[in-house]
Amino acid sequence: MTSPSRTQVLSLYKQIIRNANGFNNYNFKNYFLRKARTQFRETKDLQDPETIQQAYRTAKQELGVLKRQSVISQMYTFDKQVVERIDSRKHTQNSGR
Fold it and tell me: Complex 1 LYR protein domain: from which residue to which, for each copy (predicted)?
């Protein structure tokens, strides 16, 4: 098997980031975003084709898990945490009352 191309790796990274952003829970969302950035940063300098292929396969498997968990997360609502941004349109509409 050949190593994945740069385009394939970047596409996988974008999919992971997109699915991590799909979490409604602030803590889960930020955990998966940090994890993705860290893992891709740690593997960016790999040279061995077999090691690169293994890292790519592992990331694709984790993407599958992330997609399923993201869908499940969207089924539940969570209260906003203090550190989350408030929708400014809602905030300004309610402050005029």
Answer: 8-64
d(CA 48, CA 89): 51
SS3 47: coil
Buried b (16+ CB within 10 A) or exposed e, 62-71: bbeebeebbe
Q: For 27-75, what is each residue's pLDDT tens digit? A: 999 999 999 999 999 999 999 999 999 999 999 999 999 999 988 888 8
Kindly tell me the sign of the dihedral angle through the C-alpha atoms of 75, 27, 21, 84: positive
